C-alpha cells in the first residue's frame, strides 16, 4: 500500500485549556486515517465485515510525541504498512505539521479476527495483497 496522507484540522474540542492538542486525540486521528486509507483503496472496513465476517483490531500502539499540535493547526496523518503477516499488520503513522515538521510517530499493531470468535484469522484477499508494505517503508515509531 502506498503512503496515504489524511488531513486533520485541530479544533477547540481537540485541545486542552492551553490550546494544545490533547494526547489521546492523536489516537483518534490515527484511527480515522487508517480507516480512510482502506476506503481510498476501495477496501473499507464494512466490506471486510460483510464479506468475510472479519475485523481489523488494534493489538498494540506505540506513540512518540515529538512536538505539540495547537488549536487551528492543519496536520496530516501519513499512514504506511510496515510489515504484513498472515493475520497481522504493523502500520506506521506520522503526524506531520503543515510546515513538514514531525509532531508524533505511531506504530500500530493490527490483527485480523473473526467477528464471532474474536480469534485471529488470515487476512483475506484482496486485503492481503493490497496491504503489503510499499518499497522503502522502513519507518519505525520514535526512530
UniProtKB/TrEMBL annotation:
This is Acyl-CoA thioester hydrolase. Pfam families: 4HBT_2 (PF13279). Belongs to the 4-hydroxybenzoyl-CoA thioesterase family. Keywords: Hydrolase. It comes from Muricoccus roseus. CDD domains: 4HBT. The keyword Hydrolase applies. The lineage of its organism: Bacteria, Pseudomonadati, Pseudomonadota, Alphaproteobacteria, Acetobacterales. InterPro entries: 4-hydroxybenzoyl-CoA_TE, HotDog_dom_sf, YbgC/YbaW. GO terms for molecular function: fatty acyl-CoA hydrolase activity. It comes from the Bacteria.
Amino acid at each position: 500500500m502506498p503512503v496515504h496522507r489524511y488531513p486533520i484540522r485541530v479544533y477547540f474540542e481537540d485541545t486542552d485549556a492551553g490550546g494544545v492538542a490533547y494526547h489521546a486525540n492523536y489516537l483518534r486521528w490515527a484511527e480515522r486515517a487508517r480507516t480512510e486509507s482502506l476506503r481510498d483503496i476501495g477496501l473499507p472496513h464494512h466490506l471486510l465485515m460483510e464479506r468475510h465476517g472479519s475485523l481489523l483490531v488494534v493489538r498494540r500502539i506505540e506513540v512518540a510525541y515529538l512536538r505539540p499540535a495547537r488549536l487551528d493547526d492543519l496536520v496530516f496523518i501519513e499512514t504506511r504498512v510496515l510489515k504484513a503477516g498472515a493475520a497481522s499488520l504493523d502500520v506506521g503513522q506520522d503526524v506531520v505539521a503543515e510546515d513538514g515538521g514531525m509532531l508524533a510517530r505511531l506504530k500500530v499493531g493490527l490483527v485480523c479476527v473473526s467477528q464471532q470468535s474474536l480469534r485471529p484469522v488470515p487476512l483475506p484477499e484482496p486485503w492481503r495483497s493490497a496491504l503489503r508494505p510499499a518499497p522503502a517503508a522502513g519507518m519505525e515509531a520514535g526512530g
